[in-house]
Design a protein that fits this description.
Blueprint (H helix, E strand, L loop, with lengths): L1 E3 L31 H6 L5 E16 L3 E7 L7 E6 L13 E10 L7 E12 L17 H4 L3 H4 L3 H23 L3 E2 L5 E2 L40 E2 L4 H11 L2 E8 L12 E10 L4 H20 L2 H7 L17 H12 L8 E3 H10 L16 H12 L10 E4 L15 H4 L10 E6 L3 E8 L4 H10 L19 H8 L5 E7 H9 L20
Parallel strand pairs: 1-2, 4-6, 7-10, 12-13
Antiparallel strand pairs: 2-3, 2-5, 3-4, 5-6, 8-9, 10-11, 11-16, 13-14, 14-15, 15-16
């Protein structure tokens, strides 16, 4: 017995004066609109007629009288199997990559692999694909990540890549829920800025098409010749400074926004455009309050993500075969599981914390393992961070790796805005001049987050800025400044500053760590890096 799938139609009021075009009958159906993922979960005991499936042809297998067609729409790594009669003339145009609408009967399947399949009565080709002449670049056979990066507008059609983007969407939703539960206000700081937050000089200058290299001339009160703005502007390298301003108005704030670094680094961990999750907390006195927030946030995020369809699909791996597949490019699943479990561990035991001073001692005791000798002045290099993450992140559970906090770095190698450590109250034996800051390390990928207490005292901030040659705004007020680009930032210390701290987390790096993708460029839809900006 066949059952018709029906759903109520809601009558909508037509706005006056609006011309509504009639909808052709072929687009109407008594069946509810479902995604492929929803179809795969729909297992009625009887046949259901007049079912419509929209999607893209992934593969076609031609038999004597029928065609077995796999249909996907990005909602699931697994496709729907559709059975199409070869007597249907339109079925000859069912080629890989084509956008189609299939109508038929949803029925229990007699073949292995899935419980139900679609017996097609009607085929409609919405967007043809020239797969017959093999012009469609996405092939069923294995294609290397390097090759796929040359066509970012098409590579997301690969089920694995689509699942990564769905995981990304789920992560944004869960982060929004977490910060709302902690009474943080989501904000949208500017992308174009007047200051280089990190002071590294690796910024993109903003210019119009006719002013590729703006010429600066002294024209009195007028803006420099040929410049859109009155002074040089940049694409932001961090929204932190603007978040500090917003935190004085709104309390705890956060954002997830693109940031830009003109680093000429061509490594698997670097991009020129990437997303940073940044947050600022007002009226906090200790660094532990910031690190605890980071830990709670990541634990909440990973625990929530673990049960999502996208995460489950990404953890499912096929048995190794003779032919290489996209899964073979990923980190082994056992290692990926260790990463997830390490972040989901009970909050009863906090993640390991070690001061920079103690980390250097530990590294120097094992310096024979490293190419670069660890020293107090040189900072931690990638090989040092990997060692610390693996050594200190190992837990009593051999199937889990905990992230590791390294705190209190030397003041000389950190940013100007970080608060100087007070050794009398920090509770740590610090041999040199340090700041209240941290980096969060994970195995293999190294640093995924960093944060600090911000220097909220005007005199101390001015002293640091002057020592670093960053201009010398006077502490007497705006009228006494020399026009520094950071004058507005100093203003925040003049009027109502409070103890505060915050952090930034590399959103793309975190996703690549959880998915097990060795190259961060493969968790981004349209990656940009040194020398490449396709699409």
């Amino acid at each position: 017995m066949r059952t018709a799938a029906t759903f109520p139609l809601r009558k909508l009021a037509r706005p006056s004066g609006l011309l509504v075009q009639p909808i052709h009958r072929r687009y109407l159906s008594t069946a509810p609109r479902r995604t492929v993922a929803q179809f795969l979960e729909w297992k009625p005991e009887t046949e259901v007629k007049d079912v419509v499936v929209n999607g893209y042809v992934r593969s076609v297998r031609n038999m004597k009288t029928d065609r077995f067609v796999n249909i996907g729409d990005g909602s699931s790594r697994s496709p729907i199997q559709a059975l199409v009669s070869r007597s249907d003339e339109e079925s000859a145009n069912l080629r890989v990559g084509a956008a189609v609408r299939l109508r038929g009967v949803w029925t229990p399947s007699k073949t292995d692999g899935q419980s139900h399949e679609l017996k097609v009565d009607h085929v409609e080709i919405l967007g043809p694909s020239d797969a017959k002449n093999q012009t469609f670049p996405i092939q069923k056979k294995y294609q290397t990540p390097d090759y796929l990066r040359t066509m970012p507008h098409l590579r997301t059609r690969i089920p694995l890549n689509a699942a990564i983007l769905r995981l990304r969407s789920e992560a944004v939703a869960l982060l929004t829920q977490f910060f709302a539960s902690r009474d943080f206000t989501q904000t949208h700081p500017p992308i174009i800025t007047s200051s280089d937050c990190e002071g590294a000089g690796e910024v993109f200058n903003v210019a119009t098409g006719s002013t590729e290299t703006p010429a600066i001339s002294n024209t009195g009160k007028d803006k420099p010749a040929n410049m859109f703005f009155r002074s040089p502007k940049y694409l932001t390298v961090s929204t932190q400074l603007h978040l500090e301003a917003l935190a004085q108005s709104l309390g705890h704030v956060w954002t997830l926004s693109p940031t830009f670094r003109a680093e000429r680094s061509d490594t698997s961990r670097h991009m020129s455009e990437f997303y940073m999750l940044e947050a600022e907390m007002s009226f906090v006195d200790e660094l532990d309050e910031v690190t605890n927030l980071v830990e709670d946030m990541l634990r909440s995020l990973v625990t929530g993500l673990y049960q999502t369809r996208a995460a489950q699909e990404l953890r499912q791996r096929h048995a190794p075969g003779e032919k290489r597949t996209a899964e073979d490019d990923l980190v082994p699943i056992d290692e990926v599981e260790r990463r997830w479990k390490g972040m989901m561990q009970s909050p009863a035991s906090r993640w390991p914390r070690i001061t920079y001073a103690d980390a250097i001692k530990l590294l120097q005791a094992e310096e024979h393992q490293f190419e670069i000798k660890p020293t107090w002045e040189s900072g931690l290099h990638s090989e040092h961070e990997k060692f610390l993450a693996k050594t200190l992140g190992a837990t009593s559970d051999s199937s889990a790796y905990s992230p590791v906090f390294v705190t209190h770095y030397p003041r000389a190698i950190k940013a100007f805005y970080m608060r100087k450590s007070d050794t009398a109250t920090s509770g740590h034996d610090l041999p040199g001049d340090t700041v209240d800051c941290f980096d969060l390390l994970v195995p293999d990928l190294c640093e995924i987050a960093g944060g600090s207490m911000r220097e909220h005292r005007l005199t101390d901030l001015l002293e640091t800025m002057k020592a670093r040659g960053m201009g010398s705004p006077a502490d007497g007020g705006r009228d006494d400044t020399n026009g520094s680009d950071l004058e507005w930032y100093v203003d925040l210390r003049r009027w109502g500053s409070n103890p505060h701290g915050g952090f930034g987390l590399g959103f793309d790096r975190l996703l690549s760590y959880l998915v097990g993708v060795p190259n961060v460029r493969d968790v981004v839809a349209f990656p940009r890096w040194f020398g490449r900006c396709d699409c």
